[in-house]
Design brief:
The protein is mostly helical and 214 residues long. It is 70% helix and 0% strand. The protein is built from 8 helices and no strands.
């Protein structure tokens, strides 16, 4: 919520400045802004992410200390993708839990919408089949599709409920580990992150048609 409020304020101020520029005469050709410093940007993202659970003034102060535009910190187009490793090291476990629950709730809701629509289609098609206006095979195929969506919906909401009930500390994972084991923990985390990226690539290219043999 704090991020949304800050982005709304930034967008409103930007629109006001844009209107003022349009109303005033042009003073010269437009020049692109200088590139953002990558090191400072990464540090700002980490600090702002760590302040996401605090009050809005604390989050605004973190943005102000960074000296960077708020759009550069929050816009996916101007920052590196958040990896598993970066998320674990830069976010508290309670924030990770909330983000996971939010994502599962959104995906489960999306599946629920499609599932409800499929059920309505099944009921309508069943009436057509009973009147002899549609083949039975079409009803069987649609019913199987509906069942698949429903099964995924149930699993998603079960996973969300499990995450919501899960008790986690308000600190980061490394703060729960003996400092003498931090090096091994980071190595383990790196391997887990690589394994996750590998599974994403496998899933991405699983249904990609192979090139024809020459």
């Amino acid at each position: 919520m704090q991020r949304i409020d800050l982005l709304r304020d930034w967008l409103g101020q930007g629109l006001v400045r844009l209107g003022q520029r349009i109303a005033s005469p042009a003073v010269g050709p437009w020049a692109p802004p200088p590139p953002l410093p990558v090191k400072e940007l990464r540090g700002a993202i980490t600090e702002v992410s760590g302040s996401a659970e605090s009050s809005r003034p604390a989050l605004a102060a973190a943005v102000s200390r960074s000296g960077l535009p708020i759009a550069a910190i929050f816009s996916p187009a101007s920052r590196e993708p958040l990896t598993v490793e970066a998320a674990v090291l830069g976010r508290s476990m309670s924030l990770l839990k909330r983000e996971a629950a939010d994502a599962l709730a959104a995906l489960g809701a999306a599946h629920a919408l499609v599932t409800s629509a499929r059920l309505s289609q099944v009921q309508h098609l069943r009436d057509l089949v009973e009147r002899g206006n549609a083949p039975v095979d079409a009803l069987a195929a649609l019913a199987a599709d509906y069942q698949g969506w429903q099964n995924d919906q149930v699993r998603l909401f079960d996973a969300m409920a499990m995450v919501v009930r899960m008790g986690v500390p308000t600190s980061t994972a490394l703060e729960q580990i003996d400092p003498q084991l931090h090096e091994q923990a980071r190595a383990h985390l790196a391997s887990l992150s690589v394994e996750y990226q590998r599974s994403l690539l496998i899933d991405q290219f699983r249904d990609t048609p192979s090139a024809p043999e020459t």
